[in-house]
Design goal:
Blueprint lengths: L2 H29 L9 E6 L7 H8 L2 H4 L2 E7 L8 E2 L4 H10 L8 H10 L4 E5 H9 L4 E9 L7 E6 L14 E5 L4 H12 L8 E6 L1 H9 L5 E5 H9 L3 E6 L9 E7 H6 L1 H20 L2 H5 L29 H13 L16 H8 L3
Parallel strand pairs: 1-2, 1-4, 7-8, 7-9
Antiparallel strand pairs: 2-3, 4-11, 5-11, 6-9, 6-10
């Protein structure tokens, strides 16, 4: 082989090694949640479009994360279909999808946790019962912030009975069939705790659990069910259509125990604390802004996103977030007791090791 050919091969080999090094560096950056140099850090979040999590979505569409140099890739899904879908970056686009598919955004807490464990997501917005179920099963997730919670005196949940059921006293509920929706464990627990709060035995009524959202209305309308534990928007639909009425608003346990929680994979938190901090910073800034609004401003916000409050039904409202949105071990303990009582978990587990209070504390201390 001629010297010139050897020299050329050597150059190609060096070039190949250099290219390989660049590819490896790029791959590592992607695994660690980074995009191209100088670009925002990318974080994949699983999102359920519910009252307890919408504060996060309002932060998303109003560019709070971008200001922290974070690119949130928000993933959700639609009812009855598998596979994650990347959510649009504007509420107008979301609404356009929702008009065609009313159950777009129906990604449950357990589904989010499973996707985090599989490595498809870095974090997600889930309910307290889904978090506790994950902790109980050993899932490697860490809670970093509270989200929206049910408000005392203005709950977002109610027991609704179909209008043909005349219930003036607890005994009138005996033999009735109650449903709870397909979600995390919360709804199953609440319908059972309601029955016992009425002085009845669980055996006095029938339960149908894990009912798809799009079946709830028809089941009451056709008499296949007599009542259930329903969220504000479904409650409004029953009343507006004259299919059902409110028997009791959610007050039989401390309603603040029903809350959303922002979680991440344990390894993502360990390897990307600065990234997680900036995500929490952005979220906390949004909560601070919303809590600074007057009641009238909350009814008619100037910026983008789903509604902050909804007083359509007297004495009810959407979940609200505290500032700062600190994690509540006392409420988690209450919920875990109920999960154990009603068979959602077999053993009580200390969730404290999987709560990281530092991110919200640092975000709240930031005066920017």
């Amino acid at each position: 082989m001629f010297y010139s050919e050897q020299k050329t091969l050597k150059k190609l080999s060096l070039a190949g090694l250099a290219l390989l090094a660049v590819c490896i560096a790029f791959f590592v950056d992607r695994v660690e949640g980074k995009d191209k140099p100088g670009q925002p850090d990318v974080v994949r979040i699983g999102y359920f479009h519910g009252g307890r999590t919408r504060q996060f979505y309002r932060a998303y569409v109003n560019k709070y994360f971008e200001k922290e140099k974070i690119r949130i890739r928000l993933f959700t899904k639609t009812l009855r279909k598998q596979g994650l879908l990347e959510a649009p970056e504007t509420y107008e686009e979301w609404r356009a999808i929702e008009r065609k598919d009313p159950y777009y955004g129906d990604l449950t807490g357990p589904e989010i946790v499973d996707a985090i464990v599989r490595g498809e997501l870095d974090g997600g917005t889930i309910g307290e019962a889904s978090f506790l179920l994950a902790v109980n099963t050993g899932a490697p997730i860490v809670a970093v912030s509270n989200m929206g919670h049910i408000v005392k005196g203005e709950p977002a949940y109610a027991i609704v009975l179909r209008k043909e059921v005349k219930a003036a006293r607890p005994e009138d509920l005996k033999g009735r069939t109650f449903i709870s929706r397909l979600s995390g464990p919360l709804d199953n627990i609440m319908i059972r705790s309601f029955v016992e709060s009425e002085g009845l035995k669980l055996s006095d009524v029938k339960f149908i659990d894990e009912v798809f959202h799009d079946e709830q209305f028809s089941m009451l309308k056709t008499g296949k069910a007599d009542g259930g534990f329903f969220h504000l928007h479904m409650t409004k639909k029953f009343i507006k259509s004259d299919v059902g009425y409110i028997y009791r608003k959610f007050d039989w346990i401390n309603p603040e125990a029903a809350t959303g929680i922002l979680v991440f994979h344990r390894d993502f938190v360990k390897n990307n604390r600065d990234v997680v901090q900036r995500v929490v910073n952005a979220y906390v800034k949004r909560i601070k802004y919303e809590n600074s609004l007057s009641p009238e401003e909350k009814k008619n916000p100037k910026d983008n996103g789903p509604e902050i409050v909804d007083y359509t039904i007297a004495g009810m409202n959407l979940p609200q977030a505290d500032y700062p949105p600190k994690l509540r071990p006392d409420m988690l303990n209450l919920m875990q007791d109920l999960m154990l009582k009603y068979g959602e978990i077999k053993n009580r587990v200390d969730s404290t090791p999987q709560l990281d209070f530092s991110f919200v504390e640092k975000a709240a201390a930031n005066k920017d």
